[in-house]
Structures
1.
Amino acid sequence: MKKLFTSLLALSLLLVGCGGNSEDDGYEVALVTDAGTVTDKSFNQSAWEAVKAYGETSGKTYKYYQPQDTDKAGLKATIAEAIDNGAKVVVTPGFNFTEALMESQEEFPDVKFIAIDQSDLAPTSNTVSYMFAEAESGYLAGYAAVKEGYTNLGFMGGMAVDAVVNFGIGYIQGANDAAKELNTTVNVKYTYTGTFSESPEINTQAKAWYNAGTDVIFSCGGGICNSIFSAAEELNKATIGVDSDQHDLSDTVLTSALKGVTAAVREGLEAYGSDSFQGGKVITLDKAGDTAFPGRFANLTEADYTAVKGQIEAGSINLLTNKDLDSSNSAKDPSKLTWSNVTVSFE
Amino acid sequence: MDLVYFLFSQTLLFTIPLLIVALGGMFSERSGVVNIALEGIMIIGAFGGIYFINMSQTHGWMNGLPLFLVALVISAVIGGLFSLLHAYAAINLKSDQTISGTALNMLAPALGLFIAKVTLDGLPNVMFRNTFRIVEVPFLSQIPIIGDLFFKNTYLSTFIGLFILVVSWFFIYKTRTGLRIRACGENPHAADAAGINVPKIRYLGVVLSGVLAGMGGLIYIIPISTEYNCTVAGYGFLALAVLIFGNWKPWRIAGAALFFGVMKTLAYTYGSIPILSSLGLPSVIFKLIPFVATLIILTFTSKDSAAPKAAGIPYDKSTR
């Protein structure tokens, strides 16, 4: 028995040895993931796809690091580990990184950082920060839903963080403008669930909304979509997805308000590769904000959709964001803004 | 009236899993083993059932009610096996039951995610389609009121839950084994002196709790999601609260589970109930009600608490 164990131990050591790092200079391009994995159909996966694609085309070595703890200390340690492993550019997707990156960017001035979606970050000269115009894709989603013929809309956000609030306000504004064009009025139910994962509470609330007449709910917050999609499937109603195109997750998904994480990471890495890295800058990618069209729309015409999209791209619509909310509005309640054709009920 | 039917079916969504898991906890605690591993057992039991449903739906093995029943049996078996770890630590090794329970709670989600990642193309989440809702039971749904309440838009699990409730009551109060379970939880030394094999009875109690908690996990997740991420959002702990609230007695546990179910439902649907929404109260109030009510009721009923006297104390023959 002892002999067997010893030989197994030796064999496993041998196998581990084979799997080790054969690169001498480590991995140049590193992705540190936020909570979740690189197969989360969301932030991490989008970022990883861009890193992989860049690595393959440029021939540079690349690797992802999944932190054991996603608190500030855990993220900082993982960033340091990636740099220790030879990383010269580190991609950090998600607002969760803000505090860790504030310190890491100063500790490692020779390393370039690409920050994704971190509104509170003040980038130093070795960091470029990418933000998204969530209000744009939210606007398109709301506009499209009303043009499709829905007059009872719902919005469920994960938590009242800037990105979610921007999606929500854009959604209402889009619905408002479409209602104005159609000379009608629209009701929007609006809530923050306080979590980014599924729960029976969210399922119950979504069903209650649908039963009270809501036609379509914009599910804006990671895993809560599981409970909202399940409610919509049961009652045969519609939903709108978020971040990535979620139409294959459920037949109820009308369209998805997209966030161009892949495009942002690609742009950042290419700038790094061509020595045009814009350190210290905050770049808002507006054209990356979009919805998945044609989705499952039946009544919305392509002409209508491209017309309004063109207006957004030309900047002729003054989009509201979380900054337009009163600073005393700590609940981030958009019903406090004035809407001409929309009645917002905030729960 | 439609609103009442809707609220009732939503209430059952919360009540039935809480009821089944709390009844499981009752068997364990009344045999003398505190089981705070209910959460972990729910997680791993649901994982087993959902994993089988996923496999079966991808390969087309079976579907509909037979699939639901087989998955339920798998959840029960896996829950029962998983609880053996707790039983072994608590009964044979005489360990601190809170610690071994916590260990199971920590092990369960990690184990589930690991198995899913290794076997399902590196994805930690297990997808499934909920095809188990019964739109209408023929004939029975025609009964006025009761037909609408119980036999339309329902799940088989509702009836399984009620069946388990009746069987549990009968088993714990009307059978010899039930009496032995209660004896081991109150005074194991006296039970031992009367010739009862205390470790064996306690094993039975813990495994029964594992079986029921495993089933409860599957019943919890099916109606509310389209994929499973090895979490039951603290419902195992909530079931423990229901067990205490229900004073370790089957019918009172049922009442407590129903109370929690009604309160949870009102907290998340009040906006769609005209009378409640016209009150204009902030939503936090409704979400607080179940917990505040629990505190108040426990304060008033703590005097006649019927907690099993020997629960949580490892049985040692040599101490008297």
2.
Amino acid sequence: MTENIFLIALVVLAIVALNTKKLRRAVVYLGAFSLVSSFVYLLYGAPDVAIAEAIIGSTITTVLYLVALRKYQVFSIYYANSANDQNLRQLKNEPPFLTSLEAFLIKREMEPQLIYSGEPIETILAQEKFDLAIHHTDQDIWIYGCAEDYQIDAVEEYLLANHSDLNIHLIRCAEGDDNEA
Amino acid sequence: MTFLETTLLVIAIYITLVLVRVILGPTIWDRLLGLNAISAKIIMSIVILALITNQSYLLDVALVYALLGFISTVLIARFIEKKGDIT
């Protein structure tokens, strides 16, 4: 009976850790998974394996995953343009603020990936996995980001300092929304 | 079913209840607190298992867990609070 509860908890945690969309949550789920799995090792009479799991599983892998999460580099930017002005609309050369934003991201050791999208901004926000979504209208530039993304603060500071003439608004999505990366 | 086995069963049920909070929890802090609670309950159940099977070396595992278990919690909390800067 007790054994079954722990085994079911193990399977549930493994499935949840695979299915979650945020990497930070997956780290927490994997910590709980390794805790429960080491207790299951004890139930089946393998205390030495349980000690190894306790040391490696719950300490070293957590540190490794957090360091890897910090170095996670690809930064995807969706760009949607709904301006009526034809000059702004043509996409032959990208707007200068995007070029400098990309240069800024490369300087911070990230790899910007710019995606021009013809779809309306609502579809992008609802369906795509993005780090930044930029909506360019006639006068304003709306930038959507995720509040828990650690790079957003730096990006906002940079844009406000260098492109204060562009009417930039930054909107942060709330935490717990599963749509963002 | 002896008293100790019943206690182990009750702790297992508690772990499943905390697991619901870890999986559903609206913010990352709820998940982290749930992880900490699961860690405490696992240590308790290891001690009770050592009592049931009468093997004192299981207590060593509980000791290692009590010493190392907080490190992952502290590191994840620091990672979130300092916005990705763990030093």
